[in-house]
Amino acid sequence: MLHQPVVRLSAAILVSTLALAQPRTQDVVRTFAVRIDGRVVGSLTETEARVNEEGREVLRFTSSSVVKIELLGAQMDQRIEQTWLLDPDDRRVLRFSSTMTVGQQKTALGGKLVDGAMQLDNGRAPVDPQRVVVAPDYRWLLARGPQQVGDKLILDWLVPELGGVQQAAIARAADREVDVLGTRTPVRAYVVDLVALHLEATVLVTRDGGELVHYAAPATKLVMDRAPAGDIARIGRVDLTDRILVGTNLDLDDASTLTFVRLRAKLDTGKDVTVASLNVPGQTFTGTAVDGHVDGVFEIRAQRHDGAGSPPFPVPAGTFAAAALQPYLAPESDVIQSDDAAIVEQARELARGATTCFQVVERLARWTHEEIAYVIPGGGSAKGTFESRQGECGGHSRLLAAMLRSLGIPARTPMGAMYVPLHGGSFGQHMWTEVWLGDAIGWLPVDCTAGQPTWIDATHIRLASGVTMFRPQSIEVLDHEPKASVVDASASVVRRTDAYPFLSGAPLVYTWWQNGQQLGDERVVYTSDGAGLHAFDGSLRLADGQFTETTRTEVGADGRLLSFHADRTAGPQQSTFDVAIADGKAVCARKSMDGDRSDTVTVDAAVFALHNNCTSHFLLALSRYWPLAEGAEVKARMFHTEQRSTLPLTLRGGGSEAITIGGTEVQARIVQVELAGLAITLHVDAQGRLLRYSQKQGGIRIELQQL
Tell me, what's the pLDDT at 104? Predict the structure, then answer.
């Protein structure tokens, strides 16, 4: 939806870190409380019952879990529902079904035991339970885990909520006693690490039976324990933004102009990251990297290439035959589905007529940037992103890699961090794409999320060639080029303080569209008290009333934000937002069914307001800089009421064209907008009133009903 795609960060790892908190029980009902930073933010309920199924008695094991997460102002509740049918004598899995949802992302997997093998419903190779752990709980650790304290082993484990088989490294720790529902209980301790995802957790199971009693993932400060039902009667929401985002000392509107950055970083990442692996083309690192702890200085240069030396397209046979490239040409289970028919067809259509692989990369990257809306958490996998037409950086990068692989061009998805214009400048977790274009070019880095289709800027910190963690402690920019990229507070266009170009009390009614489908209406009313206080009252109704919101924004004569209030209903969820600005401080309060939150943030006194799905805030900012001559440019700041952060806004005057509004043709001026990297086109009448808002990412169009 409008304004949400304003940040370019990956959330996939944070969500996955919760995936091990799964049903493990042997009694009728068990409940667990999930805590992050000591606060209850989720729950898990497991049940077991003997039932008759298909003419035989089986043990039905069901589980239902939820963890309530917020990331960059977006709610990312993770819900997992699973049903397992077990042999009542030896607990062999006879059949299972699992569904995990995170926002729009959905991972579903099921299977059935046939002739001793688990046949999966995703069409992949059957799983042999003798070789791969297939179980609904952690009881298997007693029999198949390390038997002696200090022992370690690696095995394969079917984790349905992650889409299939994962390699797990298991280490046996010392036995101990812990309190379980008020009783001292002897337990065995294991450290379970999902190797590919760098997800490590301590798991405690009872010595008598292997019942799960405790799960802890240190990287995310997540702890799950057995708990009475009363402990999970009210579940709060946790904001994990600071797990993947850290403020820095450089404030930029547009980091894409940087050609060189030197910075000192302290961060945690995957244990396989070494000093040697951090030194790659375009990036040098001096410091230490031990057991996932990185401390040192990065020097990074923007990597650009003109395409000279690119292999021809279509790819001649044998061009990418090297064994080392084959993993980057093949599909990756349920992540990079380069064999999906729809993805293959789209890639072929986009590549038609291209004569070099470099041209193909640019076309596919531009299409992904323009056609796939930035939404957290988005579609997740390449296929999910393609079908939903939305995704965060992980979804963008995987889709681009899948399309390239389908055309026979090697591609991979490195991870690390990049600069984002949040909180006065920050570095946040990020994923992009690298494409192998032969020895003359090597691995070409591209960032379709950031709109960099054949290059990446100098703020990309590369940590690994695949999935890894980015847990920042501090990042300080020591030097950068060019210096002129620093935000210039001076404005080339004078900010108006005269009358607003709106008739007081007269409503402006806008119709919302997405990809050609009408979503609903928004009503905006401007009023003034005659003493310098100006107010914009909005009411929005979308999806047949499934989403409604009323807002009131109070501003000064120059449009600076004084206060803001919103009441929102989204399905069963209700919430309110309040912001008050005074003396360079914004006091932000939010109330919801998940709990209350209050923050105080330092802001520029001249900031405009920005709230998701609130068109009046564009009306307001635009009117203070109107008329905007063709070629003129204005840089300003907007305070995002949900992210509680200041974002850069650029307005550029364009030409004019005739458009039809409410059946009437009108000559409208064009204003191109960049909002923290999001491209928007506005059509404005001679008075400075907004006629049409167009956002290609996500297919959003908002249009005035009548002149």
Answer: 67
pLDDT tens digit sequence for 569-601: 988 889 999 999 988 899 999 988 777 888 888
Number of domains in the chain: 3
CA 100 to chain centroid, in Å, comes to 16
Range(s) of the domain holding residue 461: 245-484
CATH number for 434: 3.10.620.30
CA contacts within 13 A on the Cβ side of 640: 25
384-408 burial, b at 16+ Cβ within 10 Å, e below that, comes to: bbbebbbbbbbbbbbbbbbbbbbbb
Contact between 563 and 580 under an 8 Å Cβ cutoff? The reply is yes
Q: Is residue 496 part of a domain?
A: no
- Do 466 and 324 fall within a single domain? yes
- 432-456 pLDDT, tens digit per residue, is 999 999 999 999 999 999 999 999 9
528 and 392 in one domain? no
Local structure of residue 341 (DSSP, 8 states)? H
Which one of 171-175, 639-643, 692-696 scores highest in mean pLDDT?
171-175
User: Does the pLDDT of residue 486 top 60, yes or no?
Assistant: no
Distance CA(422)–CA(348), nearest Å, equals: 37
Label residue 196 by pLDDT band (50, 70, 90). Answer: confident
Among the candidates 221, 239, 257, a domain finishes at: 239
Q: Are residues 116 and 249 in the same domain?
A: no
Contact between 141 and 210 under an 8 Å Cβ cutoff? The reply is yes
Whether residue 304 is contained in a domain is answered as: yes
Q: Are residues 225 and 325 in the same domain?
A: no
Report the chain's mean pLDDT, rounded to a whole number: 89
Both 474 and 514 in one domain: the answer is no
348 and 383 assigned to the same domain: yes
Query: Nearest Cα to 441, choosing from 590, 538, 240, 304?
Result: 304
Report the C-alpha gap between 535 and 553 in whole angstroms: 5
426-431 and 415-420 as β-strands: parallel, antiparallel, unpaired?
A: antiparallel
Distance CA 33, CA 26 (A): 17
For 284, 421, 559, 621, 650, the CA distances from 527, given in Å and listed in that order, are: 57, 33, 13, 16, 26
Q: What is the pTM of this model?
A: 0.82
Compute the C-alpha angle 356/357/358, nearest 5°. Answer: 90
Q: What percent of the chain has pLDDT over 90?
A: 66
CA distance 248 to 235: 33
Cα–Cα–Cα angle for 130, 135, 139, rounded to 5 degrees: 100
| Residues 10 and 430 sit within 8 Å (Cβ to Cβ) | yes
> Distance from first CA to last CA of the chain, Å, rounded?
25
Residue at 262: amino acid letter? R
Based on the domain organization, do 226 and 311 belong to the same domain? no
Q: Mean pLDDT over residues 288-301, rounded?
A: 96
pLDDT tens by residue, 222-270: 999 999 988 888 888 888 888 899 999 998 888 888 999 999 999 999 8
Q: What is the pLDDT of residue 287?
A: 97
Give the side-chain half-sphere CA count within 13 A for 386.
22
Q: Does one domain contain both 454 and 512?
A: no
Beta bridge partners of 618: none
What would the two tokens of residue 51 be?
């039932």
- Examine residue 287 and state whether it is found in any structural domain, yes or no: yes
